[in-house]
Amino acid sequence: MEREGEDDEIVCLDESFFINDNYQLTTFTFGSHVLELYCLQSASTDFDLTGQLVWPGAVLLNDYLSKNAETLQGSSVIELGSGVGITGMLCSRFCREVVLTDHNEEILKKNIELQESSQNSLCCAELKAEKLEWGNSDQLNSILQRHSTEFDLSSVPLLFDTVEKILSVGRENKCKFILAYVSRAKVMDTLVISEAIRHGLQINEVTGTRAVVQNLEGVVFEITLA
């Protein structure tokens, strides 16, 4: 029982309490492509940790791209929600330029340095990391000004706000956004499609991409300006 007049104890936590940098060098294989990068093996739902491991959506997207590399051959790519950069690293094998973006760009820079220092690196593209929080217009405008090339890649409303702006900037280059979606809740399944349409985008399921990844159903969408 709290004594009368006794104040509640206030505990202040340093920001390092929410950061886990216990990264492990991990190997992933997608078709004939073998990738090595630093990542966590597990994470909480804290925003600083969710992007530091490889999620099922990234596995689904990399499986698709490894089988359809010709669709991005020689292109310039901006990846949204790069996490540890596993999809961008794969794209660097057959693209001209790859810009990786996420809230935590430090792990991206760490993995870019790893690729650049590797004697067995197969990267053809220039890899760059940029900080981008979905919905932050200042960060997005800055990225688009520095990387004003044709872009092909990829809370749901904030995601599509960002996608719409990138596709509009690259309209003349017929840009497209490739989204690997893994279902976690039925309400999200409907929201993804409805938000794309609300933003004036055309969203089409890529035939033959439905798959089960880590016991979750996933599919790849191709999104363009309507």
Overall mean pLDDT: 84
| Alpha-carbon Rg, integer | 19 Å
Number of helices: 6
Q: CA-to-CA gap between the ends?
A: 63 Å
Strand content: 15-25%
Structural class: alpha/beta
Q: Element order, helices and strands?
A: EEHEHEHEHHEHEEE
Number of strands: 9
Can you give me a brief rundown of this structure?
30% of the residues lie in helices and 24% in strands. It has six helices and nine strands, in the order ββαβαβαβααβαβββ. Strands 6, 7, 8 and 9 form a four-stranded antiparallel beta sheet that branches.
Question: Could you please describe the fold and organization of this structure?
Answer:
It comes from Olea europaea subsp. europaea. It holds the Pfam family Methyltransf_16. This is N-lysine methyltransferase METTL21A. Keywords: Methyltransferase, Transferase. One of its GO terms (cellular component) is nucleus. By secondary structure, this protein is α/β, with parallel strands linked by helices. The chain is 30% helix and 24% strand. The chain contains six helices and nine strands; from the N terminus they run E-E-H-E-H-E-H-E-H-H-E-H-E-E-E. The chain has helices spanning 56-67, 86-91, 105-117, 137-146, 156-169, 186-198, and strands spanning 24-30, 33-39, 76-79, 97-102, 126-131, 177-182, 201-205, 211-213, 216-225. The strands form three sheets. Strands 6, 7, 8 and 9 form a four-stranded antiparallel β-sheet that branches. The longest helix is centred in the last third of the chain and has 14 residues, at 156-169. It is globular.
